[in-house]
Amino acid sequence: MTGKVTLFVTRHGKTMLNTTERVQGWADSPLTAEGVLVAEQLGRGLADTTFEALYTSDRGRTLETADIVMRHADFQLPVNQLKGLREFGFGKFEGEYNLFMWETVSKRHGFPSVEAFFEVHKHDAPRVMIDAVAEMDETGMAENWDIFTERLLQSLDLICQEHTEGHVLVICHGMVINILLSLLAPNRVDGPIENASVTKISYANGEYTVESANDMQYVARGIVKN
Fold first, then answer.
1. What is the pLDDT along the chain (226 residues), one digit of tens a residue?
2. How far, CA to CA in Å, does 68 sit from each of 11, 36, 56, 64?
3. pTM reported for the whole predicted model
4. What is the DSSP letter of 78?
């Protein structure tokens, strides 16, 4: 009988494209000074936690965050990169302004504004947006809902097959975390995922349990007071 493994799933530090309000999925950009700082704070806040393993996506912003976290938490682990932990692939919308993408999706569904779209799609906006982006993407690079969610769940399963006890640090992306929450515990979805927040997902006896979501307590612990 296996024990319980707890995944500390965290979003990378803030990046240049985050700051300029642009779409960032498979596209990448470096951490800003603010992003580096919050990753340092997260690292110090996690210093008292022992991790059995570390996983990231294969994007530079998660690798940069992992390096900073480990240096400031004072531990070293091999970095296991999982392509399946990538952010959603937005296809032709990569690098566009977030607002432009949402306006385009809203118009495709017959809404005059983004606000009107969200009034109707309060709970399923991510799924509707993901499938709309895939349908509008002539390049064929964008993913649909089924492809995206399947690879996310497969990545979780892989991690939990390789580690059946202890704590595992998983550094990935905001939409990845929000979609995992919508799949595993829809009632825990509550707004955007903060940079460097921790969402705890445990796995035991064949079941996933969301223990906490979008938690900034570890960052708060790591703030150096003058």
1. 458 999 999 999 999 999 999 999 999 999 999 999 999 999 999 999 999 999 999 999 999 999 999 999 999 999 999 999 999 999 999 999 999 999 999 999 999 999 999 999 988 999 999 999 999 999 999 999 999 999 999 999 999 999 999 999 999 999 999 999 999 998 888 889 999 999 999 999 999 999 999 999 999 999 987 6
2. 13, 7, 13, 6
3. 0.95
4. -
